[in-house]
Design a protein that fits this description.
The chain is an alpha+beta fold and about 800 residues long. About 50% of the residues lie in helices and about 15% in strands. It has 24 helices and 23 strands. Strands 1, 2, 3, 4, 5, 6, 7, 8, 9, 10, 11 and 12 form a twelve-stranded mixed β-sheet that branches. Strands 15, 16, 17, 18, 19, 20 and 21 form a seven-stranded mixed β-sheet that branches. Strands 14-22-13-23 form a four-stranded antiparallel β-sheet. Helix 2 packs across helix 12 (about 365-390) and helix 14 (about 405-445) runs antiparallel to helix 20. The protein is elongated and about 105 Å long. The two termini are about 45 Å apart. The model is unreliable at about 400-405 (pLDDT under 50).
Length: about 800
């Protein structure tokens, strides 16, 4: 222990005696360790920590998988079969997210709702902070309508008034009795729910086997495994397919951990980011190792003297490693401070909260990780220089003033470190370049309509107040008229599922007169209802035929408008106008009266799908999105447009007042966030690499001052000296670029799922990045090379 303390004291004194070196090394380490700590804290909060529920490892989600292979929700009758036959599950619950109107308590408000069975809170181990949860008797249709409020809503809307329990609350025009308040901090990981109601009170609740609308969650029995549950559920689904072939043939079941489901959209991105900052740390280690090797020349006499006095090689290595570990630990402490700042910056530019609602923090696991990488870093950048320096030629080191034997080996090692830095930087640059290219192409995608100056808002009329289709259609018509009267509004319309709003539905259809498609291969199309003004307001181009008119009513023959993709796919080389589509679920046939241009519905990077537009007058619905094209800045009309809606019905809540351009910005937010971080990391890597190249070439020039002086004394020109130094540096850079290109070719395939419109092996990106890095390396070499040409031969010759 005494030797260790002695090594520590000596190491600290050595670092303090060289403040310039120590400061550069600390800042370099702090950047690398801080970036790793910040990203790991996000990975820890999102991917490594379990969900914040009792027995979270036993929480699972379940889907049915039809022949198409896409996940589907589960019907109420199927769920009852799973519940009755399962031996691996303790309980099941359903969750149907849908916002609801809350009225009668001040300004009408749209709140996030969840329609669940009574087992919901038991499955999550959540005990109400006040009152009780939904009870089993309230699962039955026709039972008392009850509601549990979130703690946040209770505080925000009702000021934490405990007397709210037992009082009536008007939701969707129906009276619900508040029976409980959810515990503080309770958050369903898939949706920020504010009110929970019995599943049967959902406006579209159905018990038909074909009505697959329930997102099913379950808790496994103690000791049951996910694999056992998967096997059992598939066996049950096979029995259901045999018993109900018309509804369930070709369907199977998927069971997956709830945590896995929550993070599946972000896990690849986060692991890639963690790998990227790991590369930065390796580059930082190479930089400091080079500094240590360069500094080693000045310490040769010190080490030789210690060796001459009897110190063993291991004793010297231990002393030198103690210095580097102390340096790394100090860098780790500074890195934690950098990470705190970095986390704040990271969350400030993040497109939203982390999946599961967890906030990243520097908890015990993160700090342990920081300690671990600090120790590892100290050993990584210290072991090779320590080993190189620990066996000097004692006689020459004590006798000679110039470089001693072994300098050539250290020079080759420094060159190898530069090559590794260039290679690692190039991999990061290629990754960033691919993401930039991908994001650029994403922004160039034509959404299919004019997104400028479009204001949108959503509302849902209560069924008990507008129960008839004609009443719903009339309400929407009056709202559109009122909004069109707002000064600054050029036109207005309603649509059930506005593009990029997250809303949408799909419908099965067949072509009358053509053979029935095989089971499970019935064509599908996106479906939405619009009013006669929508195509004009959205500037969605009409290609053929006509749009909807006021003459398309519930009493006239059903008509539809289709997009170009549907027309090309199902009527190739034919005129689709006048042809018919049959919709088996709705049991109706409609005539195609128009063809409009393609428009993206959910994502800019999605493959264009067939789409069917129906007339709101023939397909009325409680839900609508209002879209208004304005002559002024759209959000400046927010209050006026709300007042226009309330002029039709003062109790009608409206929400999600946004512009379509805001929706587009949100649509690409995740891609922009990942791209921005990768660009920052790549830029940091290039900066560190440039400093590394500069340091090595500068040191080489200093070591070769005498040689350069001799060359110039013998007639070498400035361009000869310049070329000599540049060749040395650029050879290292080119070797690094070659290795980096090969490595990037393999590594970037891992990020293929993050790319759009560009492959992971895009030649243009690779070539551009290689040229940029070569240019940076050339600049880093040129500065010391230029300085070498200014060497005075007489001074250089006297140097020795």
């Amino acid at each position: 222990m005494g030797d260790v303390l002695q090594d520590l004291r000596y190491g600290l004194r050595t670092l303090l005696k060289r403040p310039g070196f120590t400061l550069i090394a600390l800042v370099t380490l702090a950047l690398g360790i801080g970036a790793n700590t910040a990203i790991f804290s996000v990975v820890n909060a999102t991917l490594l920590r379990p969900l914040a529920f009792e027995g979270a490892e036993r929480l699972v989600a379940m889907y049915e998988i039809p022949a198409s292979g896409r996940r589907d929700f589960i019907s109420v009758p199927d769920l009852e079969e799973y519940r009755a036959q399962s031996q691996t599950f303790e309980e099941f619950t359903t969750f149907v997210p849908q916002s609801v109107n809350m009225t009668g308590t001040g300004e009408p408000e749209r709140v996030r709702g969840g329609f669940v069975t009574s087992s919901f809170f038991r499955i999550f181990g959540a005990r109400p902070a006040l009152g009780r949860a939904i009870e089993p008797r309230e699962d039955a249709q026709g039972a008392e309508r009850v509601v549990v409020l979130s703690h946040d809503l209770w505080q925000r809307r009702f000021g934490g008034d405990a007397s709210i329990v037992g009082r009536a609350l008007n939701l969707n025009g129906e009276q619900f009795t508040v029976v409980g308040i959810a515990p503080e901090g309770f958050r369903f990981p898939m949706d920020e729910t504010e009110v929970w109601m019995p599943a049967w009170t959902w406006p579209n609740y159905k018990v038909e086997r074909t009505a697959r609308v329930s997102f099913v969650l379950g808790r496994l029995r103690e000791g049951a495994t996910l694999k056992e549950a998967q096997t059992e559920m598939r066996a049950i689904s096979a029995r259901l397919a045999a018993a109900y072939p018309a509804e369930n043939e070709g369907r199977t079941t998927e069971v997956l951990g709830l945590h896995e489901l929550v993070v599946e959209d972000v896990s690849t991105s986060l692991w890639i980011l963690l790998g990227a900052v790991g590369f930065i740390l390796l580059i930082a280690c190479a930089n400091i190792a080079n500094l240590l090797l360069a500094r080693g020349a000045a310490r040769q006499k010190e080490v030789a003297l210690r060796t001459a006095l009897g110190a063993s090689r291991w004793r010297i290595v231990r002393q030198l490693l103690t210095e580097t570990v102390v340096l790394a630990l100090l860098g780790g402490v500074l890195g934690v401070l950098f990470a705190l700042w970095g986390l704040d910056a990271l969350m400030a530019v993040s497109p939203g909260p982390l999946p599961g609602g967890r906030a990243p923090a520097l908890d015990a696991r993160v700090l342990l990780f920081t300690l671990g990488i600090s120790l590892m870093t100290g050993l990584l950048f210290g072991i090779v220089p320590a080993w190189q320096l620990s066996k000097p030629d004692v006689y020459k080191a004590l006798k000679e003033a110039g470089p001693v034997a072994g300098e050539g080996g250290r020079s080759r090692l420094r060159g190898a470190l530069v090559v590794s830095q260039v290679a690692l930087s190039l991999v990061l640059l290629v990754g960033a370049g691919l993401l930039i290219n991908s994001f650029y192409r994403l922004l160039k995608v034509n959404p299919g309509f004019d997104t400028a100056n479009l204001l949108t808002l959503e509302y849902r009329v209560p069924r008990n107040k507008y129960s008839e289709g004609k009443q719903q259609v009339e309400f929407h018509r009056r709202v559109v008229e009122a909004v069109r009267g707002v000064p600054g509004v050029r036109s207005a319309a309603v649509v059930r599922a506005l593009p990029f709003s997250g809303n949408g539905a799909a419908v099965n259809f067949t072509l009358p007169g053509q053979p029935e498609p095989p089971k499970g291969q019935t064509p599908k199309a996106l479906e939405t209802a619009v009013d006669p003004h929508y195509f004009q307001t959205a500037a969605l181009p009409l290609i053929q035929g006509r749009g909807f008119t006021e003459r398309d009513t519930a009493d006239s023959p059903p008509v539809v408008v289709v997009n170009q993709t549907l027309a090309r796919k199902h009527f190739p080389g034919e005129d689709p106008l006048g042809r018919q589509l049959h919709f088996p679920d709705a049991k109706l046939t409609a005539e195609i009266v128009g063809v409009v241009g393609d428009a993206k519905q959910y994502q800019l990077n999605e493959v264009q799908q067939p789409q069917v537009y129906t007339a709101y007058t023939q397909n009325p619905h409680l839900f609508a999105t209002l879209v208004a094209r304005t002559d002024v800045e759209p959000m400046s009309l927010e209050r006026a447009v709300k007042e226009a809606v309330w002029s039709v019905d003062r109790d009608q809540p409206v929400w999600k007042v946004r512009t379509v351009e805001q929706l587009l910005t949100m649509n690409v937010a995740d891609s922009r966030f990942i791209m921005t971080l990768m660009v920052v990391f790549a830029a940091l890597a290039v900066l560190l690499t440039a400093l590394g190249i500069y340091g090595v070439i500068s040191y080489s020039v200093a070591q070769r001052t005498h040689e350069i002086g001799v060359r110039m004394a013998l007639g070498a020109q400035e361009r000869d000296v310049l070329g000599l130094v540049l060749r040395q540096g650029m050879l290292l850079a080119l070797v690094g670029v070659g290795i980096g290109l090969a490595a990037a070719f393999g590594v970037t395939r891992l990020m293929a799922s993050l790319l759009f419109g560009v492959t992971a092996t895009d030649p243009a990106t690779y070539a551009t990045v290689a040229l940029v890095l070569i240019g940076v390396a050339l600049l880093a070499c040129f500065i010391p090379a230029r300085r070498a040409t200014k060497v005075d031969p007489m001074v250089a010759l006297r140097y020795e």
